[in-house]
UniProtKB/TrEMBL annotation:
A biological-process GO annotation: single-species biofilm formation
Protein name: Type II toxin-antitoxin system MqsR family toxin
Top-level taxon: Bacteria
One Pfam family in the UniProt entry: MqsR_toxin
CDD domains referenced in this protein's UniProt entry, alphabetically: MqsR
Length: 109
């Protein structure tokens, strides 16, 4: 059995970034919280589609870490630190839950 610590030590995402992007592009398989919409609006993103477009630009080079979900045992979250064209750092946390792409966090870092 793989220990939680050994999973955390790896430098690869838990979920396929391409699969998350694909799921988020479809409004039927995307979950975005109201809080994250508000955080994204503060960064200038007007709606869910603009948020998804921004997540679509995230690369594996921007992967920071994976972490277990505190609220949903058994689920993981992949964290990406990305930089906007104006230099603003953003923190994006993603997950796949029941075949839906989930934006857990989308905020200024």
């Amino acid at each position: 059995m793989v220990s939680r610590e050994s999973i955390l030590m790896t430098d690869t995402p838990y979920y396929s970034l391409e699969k998350i992007k694909r799921l988020l592009r479809n409004s039927d398989t995307r979950i975005i919280t109201r809080r994250d919409r508000q955080e994204a609006a503060a960064l200038g993103y007007a709606d869910d589609d603009e948020m998804v477009d921004r997540v679509s630009q995230v690369t594996l080079d921007e992967f920071k870490k994976k972490m277990p979900s505190e609220d949903m045992p058994g689920y993981w979250q992949d964290v990406y630190n990305s930089i906007e064209p104006d230099g603003t750092k953003i923190y994006i946390k993603l997950q796949i839950r029941e075949e839906s792409g989930v934006i857990i966090s989308f905020k200024r870092k």
